[in-house]
Amino acid sequence: MTTLSLRALNRATLDRQLLLGRHPMTARQAVRRLAGLQGQAPLAPYVGLWTRLSAFTPDALSDLLTARTVVRAAVMRGTVHVVDAADFATFRPLFSPLLTAVLDTNFRRGLAGADPAEVARDAAELLTGRTLTRAQRMSKLPASLGDWSGEEFLRIKFTFLEGEALRQRLGEVIDEAAMGKDTTGKPVLRDGLSILFRGVAAAVPQGFRADMLKPDSVLRNERVPIVGVHDVFSGGQQLTAAIVAKPETDRIERIAEHARKSLQPDLAVGRHTGLG
Questions:
Q1: 133: DSSP letter
Q2: Which residues contact 97 (CB under 8 A, 6 or more apart)?
Q3: Other Cβ atoms closer than 10 A to 85
Q4: Nearest Cα to 176, choosing from 150, 194, 154?
Q5: What 3-state DSSP class applies to 23?
Q6: At what angle do helices 192-203 and 163-179 cross, to 10 degrees?
Q7: What's the CA gap between 218 and 24, in Å, rounded?
Q8: Whole-model pTM above 0.70?
Q9: 155 three-state secondary structure
Q10: Sign of the C-alpha dihedral, residues 20, 62, 82, 203?
Q11: Bridge partners for 37 per DSSP
């Protein structure tokens, strides 16, 4: 019997994980070979496949996800992974006790008195055939509320670029930087940080519009733009709206604060790289 050295064991493990070089296999073959990729952050599996495959493109994984050939779901360690759909059907029952314990530990108070089968049934009805943002999920009202049943108390709408339209707009940002001016002839900065900020500005959603249901005794489906709340809502209605919308508004404030800190240039780095 041959005993592997630590170095040989290390290299064998890296090879099993396709990390010793890029390989000429498809995205699905790699996902199956690895028995799943960490997908807690949505972009992580794309980076993971790009580092492993010689001809990987983002659309290769996106198409698999759209076709449900691979799925992004909670499985190993109770965290989200990208797994081949056939493998997921095999793995999921094995991890059910762990996932049930995680659900009970983290959401026991919020699910007190709820029937898990009924929650799963409602979730399937809500999500089948469409994707909801976190804001939509958190603002969704339960059934049995008359005209409010299934409505979003706080509704936020916006438009965003994706696919070819997004690639075209980002290409325009690069072209403008190369020429030193935008389409109106206005000069633009050409350093890396300025290009990054302009790229982010081009990619983020635009045209935000927000409204909320007007609380009243009969729960009519009457919506009021956020900017008009103070003029239309009574004091009691404003208090009710603030209480109902607080979880989502708190989350929006946390995201905004995180974004502000993330995009704030590091002055020390700037001085050392010539950006400051």
A1: -
A2: none
A3: 15
A4: 194
A5: strand
A6: 150
A7: 63
A8: no
A9: strand
A10: positive
A11: 82
pLDDT in the model for residue 247 = 65
* Residue 118 to residue 250: CA distance in whole angstroms: 28
Residue 80 bridge partners (DSSP): 74
Contact 25, 52 (CB under 8 A): no
Candidate from 45-49, 224-228, 236-240, 267-271 with smallest mean pLDDT: 267-271
Contact between 28 and 69 (Cβ < 8 Å)? yes
Burial 112-140 (b: 16+ CB within 10 A, else e): eeeeeeeeeebeeeeeeeeeeeebbeebe
In the structure encoding, which two tokens stand for residue 170, read together?
């980002």
Distance CA 94, CA 96 (A): 6
Residue whose pair of structure tokens reads 């469409």 in the numeric block: 130
pLDDT, tens digit, 9 for 90 and up, residues 84-135: 999 999 998 888 888 888 877 877 776 777 777 777 777 777 666 666 666 5
User: Measured on CA atoms in the order 27, 29, 30, 35, is the torsion positive or negative?
Assistant: positive
Q: Does residue 13 register a pLDDT over 80?
A: yes
DSSP 8-state secondary structure symbol assigned to residue 187: B
Residue 198 — φ and ψ, nearest 5°? -70, -35
Q: Which residue has the tokens 């403008």?
A: 176
Q: How far apart are CA 121 and CA 11, in angstroms?
A: 46
Amino acid, res. 33: R
Q: How far apart are CA 27 and CA 64, in angstroms?
A: 8
> How far apart are alpha carbons 66 and 104 in whole angstroms?
30
Amino acid in the structure at residue 101: A
Residues 6+ away with beta carbon under 8 Å from 137:
none
- Measured between alpha carbons, how far is 168 from 150 in angstroms, rounded to an integer? 37
Question: Rounded distance, CA 58 to CA 50, Å?
Answer: 8
